[in-house]
Amino acid sequence: MKPRLVIATNNAHKLQEITAIVGDHFDILSLADIDCHDDIPETADTLEGNALLKARYVYERYGLDVFADDTGLEVAALDGRPGVHTARYAYPDRHDPEANVVRLLEELHEKNDRRAQFRTIIALIQQGEEHLFEGKVEGCIAIAPRGTGGFGYDPVFEPEGLGKTFAELGTDVKNRLSHRARAVQQLCRYLTASDAPATAE
Ligand code: IMP
């Protein structure tokens, strides 16, 4: 029987992405699969802190190996903001992707330095041991939104050297080079390495 590994998400895209890579080695479970319907707190002030909070929440209650991720957009001219507040940048109490983009463009109005990076942290807890993995993509914030693909800040984020926003590049290209893909690759490299601890029941 394959060892079980929970992803602390119900996001179908994340589940599919991970299952495609490590599904041969692990039985991947979502939060719904383990009957966890809680609103897991994300109250830390760093991406690392939030990823660990989510992973620990599941590990402590269910005793299953688990990993959780957290992503932030870090803008140089804004001293790294919105960072850990990326999802709720425009309104602290709700996630409004269009309003987030409007706020970001307003804050960068007439700023020449438009450098930014997306950063994803994955926290894995395996047999009680914690591991962190990071994926980053550098780029800049466009003057105005372009493209129709993707989600969130994709219409205004241009990865370095490509001259197109994530929303213009399309899902296939984006999923190959994105921050999340890079963090997932790090995780999968670790999980499939022969010396990773076995977690079979
Ligand atoms: P999460 O930690 O994956 O939920 O990401 C936090 C927030 O970052 C999301 O709500 C989006 O606003 C933004 N975000 C994360 N990944 C991306 C991406 O690939 N493109 C655009 N926005 C993203």
User: What's the number of extended β-strand segments?
Assistant: 7
The level of helicity is: 25-40%
Structural class: alpha/beta
Oligomer: single chain
Q: How many whole angstroms does the radius of gyration measure?
A: 17 Å
Order of H and E elements: EHEHEEHEEEHHH
Mass-distribution shape: globular
Query: Which range does the strand content fall in?
Result: 15-25%
Can you walk through the features of this model?
There is one protein chain. By secondary structure, the protein is α/β, with parallel strands linked by helices. Strands 1, 2, 3, 4, 5, 6 and 7 form a seven-stranded mixed beta sheet that branches. The protein is globular, with a radius of gyration of 17 Å. Inosinic acid binds next to strand 3.
Give the tags.
single chain; 201 residues; alpha/beta; seven-stranded mixed sheet; 23% strand; globular; binds inosinic acid
What is the element layout, followed by pairings?
Blueprint: E1 4-7, H1 12-22, E2 27-29, H2 47-62, E3 66-75, E4 82-83, H3 97-107, E5 115-126, E6 129-141, E7 157-159, H4 166-169, H5 171-177, H6 179-192
Parallel strand pairs: 1-2, 1-3
Antiparallel strand pairs: 3-4, 3-5, 5-6, 6-7
This protein binds inosinic acid.
Inosinic acid is lined by residues 70-71, 86-87, 95, 97, 150-154, 166, 178.
